[in-house]
Fold each of these.
Amino acid sequence: MSVSSTIFGKTKSGQTIKEFTLENQNGAKVTLLTYGAIISGIHIPMADGSVRNVVIGYDDLAAYEEDNFYLGSTVGRVANRIANGSFTLGGKTYELAVNNGPNHLHGGLVGFNQKVWEAEVFAENTVKMSVLSKDGDEGYPGDMVINVTFELREDDQLVIEYHATASADTVINLTNHSYFNLDGRSSKSCLDHELKLEAKTFAVADETAIPTGEQREVAGTPFDFSSFKKLGQDIAADDEQIKFGNGYDHHYIMGDFTAKPRLNAEAKSADGQLRMKVYSTMPGFQLYTGNYLGEKFEARQAFCIETQNAPDAINQTVFPSAVLARGERYEQKTVLEFLK
């Protein structure tokens, strides 16, 4: 097990960005950038001697600075959407940037994905990244200190732990926004992957991807992945929810926050040679099939399983609370396990 680092580049403003590499005894490697606390690569050695990088990303820092799709990044303060860019907390209404149709998305105009994080080798197999989000940052109240640790274990598990505290009551919903293709970065479609999801319900959304409050059973719908099914099987179904998202871009509901990670999802590569299991303490996850990926990638080249609280949870009582109270500690964990 080893951790090494190198200079990845400099931002347009002149800040130096490092790339950290975690490597285990199996030869698996995870690369991390201090820009956006980004997972830039997950390299899995295969039985035939080849190595698959199972997340899509860019080769240079300039491309990450121009990225609009949050590739591999740590997203916050609030991942996903807040309706109309507005919420009320402690009797005060806070107005945020509206950067996704009528809504606030993934922390605003300059979210955590665009910040330069401090990094340190936390253990022989772990890197800890930290950032300070000051009171008023993107309109959110309170100073918030965020620490995210990335640990690569010998059993090919990547463990991501989120920790945060704030100086005032505020809102939080952190996630990692990696896009996966288990056939490797060179593969141009994820639709032949097979997926199995543990969630029994999903959050029905309006045409702007804000939950309506209805939690619908997946059984009998295109959202049913209770047994392994190809991602592309129902992605063009004659279904209003599918049409709203131009595919899958929906929150699956697991329940409340949990003390220990539980299985959320399992995916198989199209060739059946690699599997990924996703575990989390979060109350749900967003399934996104990369329906919009710009000019550098193909639409639906890769998919996301974004473990998180529900979209617009701060405005909807049907979901677990998105409030981080002053003096409390936010602690969540996601585990990605790779199996051959």
Note: DSSP finds two helices and 27 strands in the chain.
Amino acid sequence: MKKILVLATGGTIASTHHQDGLAPGLTIDQLARYFKHNSDVSVDFQVLMNKDSTNMQPEDWLTMAKVIDENQSRYDSFIITHGTDTMAYTASGLSYLLHGLKKTIVITGSQVPVSFKRTDAKKNINDALTFAQKADIPGVFIVFDGKAILGTRAIKIRTKSYDAFESINYPYIASIGEQDIQINFQPETETVVFPRHFGICPNVFLLKVFPGLSPAFFDFLQQHTKGLIIESLGNGGLPFEKRDLVSGVEKLVSKGIPVIITTQCLEEGQNMDLYEVGKRVADAGGITAGDMNTEAIVAKLMWVLSQTSDPATIKRMIQTPIAHDLDYI
């Protein structure tokens, strides 16, 4: 008999009407009633927190990771019910914190509360149970709208539709129907390069570049962050004429602050050597993130900075594929 532990964290799936709008309100017993399963699987439930996922913090990833780690010998797989707004960040965070754990960890939720008449929650719960029971693929996955997505590759791109998440720069892992699963892509087994580490440094900053952004902003960042992620233009370019942002990157790097360069384009990653505007960023010390998505970069940089402040080590760890987060395309 397969044993599954469901960890409840709140989110829309468990929300009810409150005076100021929807907020998590179902008890664990009320939520558990919707987890209908066969007699050949045992399902236990535990409440970790009861939050709208907008209020989810990196420290909460640690709470989830430690509970899963402590229970790995008792359960075959885990399901986390979670709000959708930060689900992709949590999936990435757990992918790094639990990298190497030979268990299937499924995160699911819904766009409409499970207690509502028309809801996607019941299907997502059923699909999560099916994947957790039958997939037998270690790692962290988001199961939503009949699809299983690798945790480091998921992005929420819709606010209302049931198909809220997409897999970016990586194949969908599985399609899930009623009590049935079709594995579409089997990730290769990774060699664990870095030891498991339960630590997070949340003092990072995410900057989206736009025409007109003042270079003076980098002076502020120099005093207030330990790591910067820049969503650059196109293939990794930053302006160096008039409002020179490249010199801002160089200034931060000279102070030992890592600057990770990604792109605002969701698909196809980046190539900083293709254009002068990108090559100058690389020469200034910007660290390319290849085809990683922003949610994964944020979580990975927090995890890396909790372990080291050495620039060379930070670059090596960021650019080493972990949980299939990098270099698929």
Note: The chain has nine helices and 16 strands.
Amino acid sequence: MLDGKRVLLIISGGIAAYKSLELIRRLKDRGCAVRCILTKGGANFVTPLSVAALSGDKVYQETFDLTDEAEMGHIRLSREADLVVVAPATANLLAKMANGIADDLASTALLATDKKVLVAPAMNTMMWEHAATQANLATLKTRGVAQVGPNAGDLACGEVGAGRMAEPAEILAAIEAALGTPGPLAGKKAVVTSGPTHEAIDPVRYIANHSSGKQGHAIAAALAALGAEVTLVSGPVHIPDPTGVKVVRVRSASEMLDAVKAALPADMAVCAAAVADWTVANRATEKRKKKAGAPPPVIELAPNPDILAAVSKGEGCSRPRLVVGFAAETETLLDNARDKLARKGCDWIVANDVSEGTGTFGGDSNVVHLVDAKGVEDWPRLGKDEVAARLALRIAAVLGEGK
């Protein structure tokens, strides 16, 4: 997939530098030429010999190497590549990038490049959450710098939280996407559900919820950006359709289930819709009229079809290789998410708190927890587009490994 492509990989000083060796191997396996800059800090964690052996090229470390600078080394390094990747990207190097500091070969090459840059941050949680780091990342984003990760989990310092560098497979998927090569999900089909459902009480009224569809639509767009053929089954929403996605509009849960089954088989299904648990059993065919002195009408409820369980268990349909569900909860979030994972039979649950005041429903950001059979991964608060991009890359990494 990367035949003829060239990547300049900058390895800076962090314990996650060991992952860069695996990244080099994966890039080479896909036909990509890899040239590496190793910072002084990076050399404390991986050796120039190991990097050179895997890349099959000289490792560059010094700005004023007479042989290389006679040929304008830092300019040539930065311009001959199709993409510059910084993995790991430390807080220090991100700060240099944001402020235009060029005091070593890595920062000089980054300042001199006219190519797209992808960073994979890695650092302690407090450093990652610091306002200075977040401001630097915001600045870099406005300049077109792409980002993958970081993930949350156990850190080398013994703390737990966001700051783990993305896994090599995730970085590889981001590289493929950045280079515009056939994406890591090219040739694969995806079904995504989004938005609320409307369960009619009568021809005028319905039962619904506050879901805006922003998260589900963002996931559909992110999967399409990685090359997947995406069918988005959407309940009633007031947001634009994602580009490059087939959209099927439905209203009720039963309509959504029919549309999902019609879109199968697929390689992956992401059930992000906030489907109503109940429908109205005694739906009126005419508008229920309010009458003076009469009590309110009695509304009888009946269970809606369970779309996530049906897809996960292959009930009347072909089960996708990977099924992801969402758990929107207001209490005991993780306990409910684990229970849902077991009951529904899906592979992952993306759990989020939709309690009043969180701003999740209708908002532009989300705090999610990725739950699978191995445990829970807590993600920091991210924009819904960022949540979608990270989830799409995680899906690509798994399906790309044939798991």
Note: The mean pLDDT is 89.
